[in-house]
Amino acid sequence: MDIDAGLVSALLAEQFPDLADLPVRPVARQGWDNRTFRLGDDLSVRLPSAEEYAAAVEKEERALRFLDGRLPVAVPGVVAIGAPGHGYPFPWSVRRWLPGDTVEAASPLDRVALAKDVGGMLAALRALPTGAGTAAGRHSFYRGSHPSAYSDEVQTALERLDVDAQACADIWLTATTTVWTSAPVWFHGDIAVGNLLVRGGRLSAVIDFGTCGVGDPACDLVLAWTHFEGEARGAFRESAGLDDATWRRARGWALWKSLVVLSGQSSPDEGGEHRRILAEVLADPLV
User: Fold this and answer.
1) Which InterPro entries does the entry link to (predicted)?
2) Pick from 38, 100, 109, 206: most CB atoms within 10 A?
3) Under the phi-then-psi rule, with left for phi > 0, alpha for psi from -120 to 50, and beta for the rest, what region is 286?
């Protein structure tokens, strides 16, 4: 779908004329699920890139209105919800622009401090009442559900790839033979370096709640293998908390993602990143 600044300007002029005079420009690095544009200095516009992501607009608005001000870091509060128009068939949103750099774009960071910040934020998220959340399922691409939802993809990957299939199968079995036995809690669903903002070297905001919901928080722990290592990995484990079984499921989530990327069932492996992550997952059980 062709989503550009011209479309955004036309939608604004039609539905939010008070914002139509603000300059519109695409952000430098776009996500997979949505296209994001800067609107003036203080706002952004976010448009789902395909039908499967459009259902998250209303859910995310409801979640963000509840979460705003209740976490130790900022979230992108929703200013307005737009309707389809000018050939664009989905709802879309106007949000507050949050200052800061993504972790992946920031200058070298103290990863131990970052690990403690992210872990503490996740602990605070889990502690909140869940009434405004949506139970994990298809809308969250099964984040927050049991990892066995993706057992077929793991099996397909192991048949295609030249990897240590037995080691991978053992990790997956360990992950999928435990369950979340407590009451459902909030999860973000995509805790990745592109969705974490830092200012002054510390975590300042979390963005992209499109896959959020309530359920099993194990999916939010994969940063232990995708970004942290050594002392920082241990600091994240300690600050995020949770029992060993949940961390085993988290390792399964990290394994699944790298396997589906490397086997061609998901987005391409840019720069060989998932080869590195798979090696980390195989080498360090963390529990």
Assistant:
1) AGP_Transferase (IPR051678), Aminoglycoside_PTrfase (IPR002575), Kinase-like_dom_sf (IPR011009)
2) 206
3) left
Q: How far does Cα 175 stand from its chain's mean position?
A: 20
Q: Kind and range of the H or E element at 256?
A: helix 244-262
Residue 193 in this model has a pLDDT that exceeds 80 = yes
CA triplet 188, 189, 191: central angle to 5 degrees? Answer: 75
The CA distance from 51 to 37, in Å, is 19
The residues facing 37 across adjacent strands are 26, 45
Q: What domains does the chain contain, in order, with CATH numbers?
A: 5-98 (3.30.200.20), 102-283 (3.90.1200.10)
Band (206; pLDDT cuts 50, 70, 90) = very high
Residue 218 DSSP code: G
Locate all alpha helices (DSSP H) within 32-164, ordered by sequence. 51-54, 56-67, 111-126, 151-160
Among 224, 149, 215, 220, which residue's Cα sits nearest to residue 180? 215
Q: Is the pTM of this model over 0.90?
A: yes
Instruction: List Cβ<8 Å contacts ≥24 apart for 116-120.
Output: 116/235, 116/236, 116/239, 117/73, 117/202, 117/203, 118/191, 118/196, 118/203, 118/223, 118/236, 118/239, 118/240, 119/235, 119/236, 119/237, 119/238, 119/239, 119/240, 119/241, 120/72, 120/239, 120/240
Cβ-proximal residues to 17 (8 Å cutoff; 6+ apart), any chain: none
